[in-house]
Amino acid sequence: MTSSLQHAFRSHSSTAPAVVATQLIKHFGELEVLKGISLEVPEGTVTSIIGASGSGKSTLLRCMNLLERPDRGELAIADEAIRFDRNPQGDIIGLDRRQLQRLRAKVTMVFQQFNLWPHLTVLGNVIEAPMRVKKLSRKQATALGEHYLERVGMADRRDAYPAFLSGGQQQRVAIARALAMEPRLLLFDEPTSALDPERVNEVLGVIRGLADEGRTMLLVTHEMHFAREVSDQLVYLDQGHIACSGTPKDVFEDPRCRQFMAPAA
Amino acid sequence: MTSMTPEGLIDWAGPILNGALTTVQIAVLAYAIGLLLGLLGAGAKLSPWAPLRGLATVYSTLVRAVPELLLILLLYYAGAQALDALLGYLGMAGAVQITGFATAVGVLAFVQGAYMTEVFRGAIMAIPRGQLEAASAFGFSRWARFHRIVLPGMLPNALPGMSNLWLILIKDTALISVIGFNELFFTIQQAAASSRAYFLFYAAAGVIYLLMTLSSTALFTRLERYVRRGQPTEA
């Protein structure tokens, strides 16, 4: 069934959504963090997940590259139905490691805390995954890396080590690192939450530029105004449920949604 | 003989240098194997698989809890007997010299590995989780993650402990003299006893050990500067 599904995806690759999540459920111990989330991210669009702390938005995002393994539900990402191992009750108990590595080369992530590798230079950080995971030569990877460092305005610091950069600069390098894999889908996990206020805009500017290029992105953010501006789709999460979703206009004009967002907005 | 031809350092220079060389060889080999055992031990201790964790815990706890001198004697006699039996069985008895060197290396490596296990375990746990998560999130294989991220990430934390263990190891090679193997300390004891110039030879031994440890400390300092290249020095 997976092969026919993959085939169906491939033959409609221009219209197939980058993500189709169906009824995702995730527990941490007794706590149910995601209570049946269904979500589609169309190719070439930006979706922002917003909501209060603890609403499950980071967990949902982390399910998209399987840093978190959902306990139940279906997931198709970048043309592939994820093959979960399930017990007879249908609970997810395992993953296909090969598929996982393939998936993660196509879905890359920008973290709240940047998570650059401190022993590698800026360029070293950006070319590491293309070399180790996509098996590009150093020359090919460096060309890619320089291109994307240029794109985020960090080309002049290519030989610096991350610890010598500001938070905003580190996050821009982290974005270049995610771009250098030329992914189908970019995930952003609160990319500006760890930044000094005066550094937020340089990072948001880069993300806005990527949205304008038509990249497929899924964003978790507290920056409501930014989310409203760049997103094609807003998803408001409340205690593990999707409380509201739609275009930013729909969500912000719907009185019921506004009520939800009142404390946050 | 007592007063007519006192034996001096010159007479013993050759054997002493040979002994020093043997000591260095034992130490380097034992250290290399100890590093490997330590990595395996730390890997096992951090493994999600309980039997493996248990095995590593027994190893590092037991070895670190028993005096090394005792371990050397125990492993020497048990190890030599086992090896003799094996060689006899294969009809190759008589490789005594090799057995002594191998035992010295084997025992010291076994002890080093136990201490190294704890040094590496702590150093790996001190790597910020996000750095490892980033490697996983980009689809690194386990091997790529280990040798490109975990290893260079833990070395700054591990090197001070590793350098400590190296110094201890050089000095522990002297314990090997109890099994009558011709390393530096054993040779010095022979020289001192035969010439009765105890102070002279033991002082010479002290100087040689000091030279070995000082030069290796300089090496470790450079190594540490290299693995910390990405870290700002304290202003």
Write down the overall geometry of chain A: globular
Q: Which runs of chain B of at least 5 residues are low in confidence (pLDDT < 50)? A: none
Q: Give me the number of helical elements of chain B.
A: 8
What portion of residues of chain A belong to β-strands?
25-35%
Largest sheet of chain B: none
Characterize the biggest β-sheet of chain A.
6 strands, mixed
Total helical elements of chain A: 10
Compressed to H and E, one letter per element, the order of chain B equals HHHHHHHH
Strands of chain B, count: 0
Q: Give me the strand/helix succession of chain A.
A: HEEEHEEEEHEHHHEHEHEEHH
Seen as an oligomer or otherwise, the chain set is heterodimer
| Average pLDDT, all residues of chain B | 87
- In angstroms, what is the radius of gyration of chain B? 22 Å
Considering DSSP H and I runs of 4 or more, what fraction of the residues of chain A is helical?
Answer: 25-40%
Shape of chain B: globular
Mean pLDDT of chain A, rounded to whole units? 90
Distance between the termini of chain B: 65 Å
Summarize the largest interface: chains and residue counts. Answer: A-B, 30 and 22 residues
